[in-house]
Amino acid sequence: MKRKFTFLNLLIGCFTLLILNTKFNSHLISEELLKVELNKEIKKGRFLIGLKQYLGGQNDGFSKRKTINFATDKGFLNLNSSNGIKHKSKQINIIWRDIPIKNPQMIERIVFGPFSSYESAKKQANKLQDRGFETTIAFPKDWEVWIPFENDLPELEFKKEIFRKIKNIQVTPFLKIDSSFIKLQGPINIYSDEDIKINEINFGKNFYLIEDSYGTWTLIQKIKFDDYLEGVLPYEIGPNSPLEALKAQAVIARTWGIYNSDRFIMDKYHLCTSTQCQVYKPPKIKNKKVQKAIKATSNLILTYDNQPINAFYHGSNGGVSATAGESWQIQDYPYFNSFIDGSKSLNKIFKLPIQNESELNTFLDLDNELFYGSNHSRFRWSKKISSLQIKEKLIKNKLLNVNENILDLDAIERGSSGRVLKLEIRTNKANKSVVLVKDDIRRVFSFIPSNLFTINKLSDDLWLFKGGGFGHGVGLSQSGAIDMAELGFSYEQILNHYYRDAKLEEIEILSQ
Predict the structure, then answer these.
(1) Are strands 180-183 and 160-177 parallel, antiparallel or unpaired?
(2) Are 92 and 190 in contact (CB under 8 A)?
(3) What integer pLDDT is reported at residue 58 of this predicted model?
(4) Tell me, what's the pLDDT at 201?
């Protein structure tokens, strides 16, 4: 049953963030530049998407020779900079320069991590907050938790490092007009009534350049929910998926985006474009089936107790879904359960929990045709991995010394779905072992598609990992949803199958 869901009831932890107040007045677009409040944008049905991060720095893979070019085929571009610079042209070139700082600053902080997911970083931040620390969740390369540096910091049992860096340069944007360079100040708003090409890629009509927390810049796009989904669905579930599967994906992608819209609050936008959020790319060609699915489900989200749910989804669950607590170091959500993802006859043949390796091997050998989503390329997989490869992964993650060798691997704890919760790696060093927990298993052993696996030692130097699924296994299985849609299930039935007890509700967007 669908009913109205007002954003006045939306308590998702989105803190109002004032980016900047400037001293000049202009028309409506300029006024939007002066004050960008993240949760107000959500209430108006818009996301701020971090399209390209780390611009102007060493990890800048987008700027060409430290230059970004904005252009339109028709019409004009408008630029408003926070230091009062305004410019109108058919083409805008912005160049990055490293400007020396007169009085270099020492940056110091305590860093916890890296974490394999935002969820694990959030849990660490909550633990530190309970101890009275002010925390920030950051993503300079991997997820980290920062707290201010203190000389008399009490002893903490958490893994941490001290970060120190002298900031002696400022990555600064300049507007290039012929042979002249005009210094700009962020946020910088660039917009047009026509679609804008940025470095020859068509992105949209309304953008910001905003300085991030790492001394570099982010290209941010302001976009309506449904326009955003047009760039998500083709790259998440695929444009050729059945219509009902596309509708289900539209609902959960919208829900996930709203629930997680405070993920990059420190850098003044809602979501990124990678698998750390939802994969998003500006659609080059409008897909009618995708548009139909989005329109048919416009403003619909899943809720539990009048709140948007954390609508996790993934490629393939290997035939058995996971709880959130099996996949991340977080508490479970009531709308996620472990269950066999397949026909009624399958549920009579096999029962959960899967308690050991023997039972999981039996499960993995069941007839694939009984499951939803068995056509996925990694529904069943096996990988032969050498001890050297395992050792290299552990060394890279600073968990093993070069002079240590791998003796044995053992899944010492499994969840009800059979997924490995704790993986012990024993070494030749006396009384030394490394234990990887939940999502850290896939972060460190990136060759493993999922935590649903068994281990067989083939020799002292070779291991066989045999498993199923691709991803964390929580929530909707995209391959499973495709199968269910092809079997005649509606998108409402698909959502009810993967998100038990969640309600389908219509959000009420505030006036523009």
Answers:
(1) antiparallel
(2) yes
(3) 87
(4) 86
Q: In this structure, are residues 214 and 264 in contact, taking their beta carbons and an 8 Å threshold?
A: no
345-383 burial string, b = 16+ CB within 10 Å, else e?
Answer: ebeeebebebeebebbeebbeeeeebbbbbebebbbbee
Q: At what angle do helices 491-498 and 243-259 cross, to 10 degrees?
A: 50
Instruction: For helices 243-259 and 478-486, give the axis angle rounded to 10 degrees.
Output: 150
Rounded CA separation 311/461 (Å)? 41
Cα distance between residue 470 and residue 449, in whole Å: 5
Smallest CA-to-CA distance from 389 within 440, 433, 468, 446 is with: 446
Residue 243 parent element (H or E): helix 243-259
The DSSP string of 52-106 is EEEETSTT--SSBTTEEEEE-SSS-EEEEETTS-EEEESEEEEEEEEEEEEEEEE
Residue 131 main-chain phi, psi, to 5 deg: -90, 0
- Tell me which residues of the chain have a pLDDT lower than 50: 8, 11-34, 512
For the chain, the first-to-last Cα distance in angstroms comes to 28
Q: From residue 298, give the alpha-carbon distance in Å to each of 254, 257, 322.
A: 9, 14, 28
- CATH 3.30.70 assigned to 100-169: yes
Cis peptide before 334 (omega within 30 of 0): no
So what's the pLDDT on residue 491?
98
At 320 the three-state DSSP class reads strand
Residue 183 CB neighbour total at 10 angstroms? 13
Cα separation of 307 and 197, whole Å? 37
Tell me the backbone φ, ψ of residue 84, rounded to 5 degrees. 95, 0
DSSP label at residue 7: G
**Distance (Å, rounded) from C-alpha 263 to C-alpha 271?**
7
pLDDT of residue 278: 93
pLDDT for the residue 490: 98
Phi, psi (rounded to 5 degrees) for 315: -75, -50
CA 296 – CA 289 distance, rounded (Å): 11
436 pairs with which residues across the strands? 423
Q: What pLDDT shows up at residue 30? A: 41
Rounded distance between C-alpha atoms, residue 443 and residue 463, angstroms: 19
With contact defined as beta carbons under 8 Å apart, do 424 and 410 qualify?
A: yes
The span from the CA of 134 to the CA of 140, in Å, is 19
Residue range(s) of every CATH 3.30.70 domain in the chain: 100-169
